[in-house]
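hey m, so remember when u said the tokens were messed up on ur end? i reran from scratch. heres the input so u can diff it against urs
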Amino acid sequence: MSTTGRKFLTSINWPVVSSVLSKHTEITKSLGVFRKGYEEAERQLVQLKDADRAIDFAHYRRVLKNTEIVDKLEKMAKAQKATKVDLASQLATISAFEAKAVA
């Protein structure tokens, strides 16, 4: 989700929205489900960002008999480089869609 979308969702005063829509129970339920799903996705995102991504190749060398495989995999992992992709056009499209949906 874009920064604009996050700002919008965090700026919503959920108790006020719920009280205003109290007569419309289905809308209130749907908003509650949406909010919980958003909060769960944010929590998982934070967990994934904080997760340790290191591979313990020494452990696999101790466990496996064929250590050549582990050596090859370690060499491949160290040679792997992250590539940068220009997502500006996709993000602009998403932002335009969000702005249209929110308006």
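this time it looks ok to me. The helical segments are 3-11, 14-20, 25-50, 57-63, 67-79, 88-102. if urs says something different then somethings off w ur setup not the seq
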